[in-house]
């Protein structure tokens, strides 16, 4: 989530971590608008990710204000504490459009 937060912060969004109690990981706010960000990570190519029911329902209810931020190629170099590896950004949706279609 740090990578996604940094991505939006670099674009002048204020980010709030909501992963503990919401069906999305971050809220990015800018100019009075909120974007709900779901962060997914995978060690694979990232062509396909799985979302839980609450994530899909939220995206359907807030179509147009959702972003799916996918990190791919996560390499676990050593498992120590809370730093399990590094990630490469594959795809990130920006702007107002919802780039993914939950069904």
Which regions contain 5 or more consecutive residues with pLDDT less than 50?
83-99
Shape: globular
Q: Please identify the structural class as seen in this structure.
A: alpha+beta
- Please outline the major beta sheet: 5 strands, mixed
User: Can you write the helix and strand succession as a string?
Assistant: HEEEHEE
How much strand?
Answer: 25-35%
Percent of residues in helical segments?
A: 10-25%
| Gap from first CA to last CA | 24 Å
What is the tally of helical segments?
2
Name its key features.
2 helices; 103 residues; alpha+beta
Q: Could you explain the architecture of this structure?
A:
The chain is an alpha+beta fold. It has a single domain (2-92), classed as Trna Endonuclease, Chain: A, domain 1. Helix content is 17%, strand content 34%. It has a five-stranded mixed β-sheet, with helices on one face. The longest helix is centred in the middle third of the chain and has 9 residues, at 53-61.
């Amino acid at each position: 989530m740090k990578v996604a937060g940094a991505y939006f912060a670099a674009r002048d969004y204020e980010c709030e971590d909501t992963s503990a109690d919401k069906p999305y990981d971050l809220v990015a706010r800018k100019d009075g608008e909120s974007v709900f960000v779901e962060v997914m990570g995978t060690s694979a190519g990232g062509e396909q990710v799985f979302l839980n029911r609450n994530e899909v329902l939220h995206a359907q209810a807030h179509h147009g204000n959702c972003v799916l931020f996918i990190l791919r190629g996560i390499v676990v170099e050593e498992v120590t504490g809370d730093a399990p590896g590094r990630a490469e950004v594959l795809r990130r949706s920006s702007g107002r459009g919802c780039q993914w279609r939950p069904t």
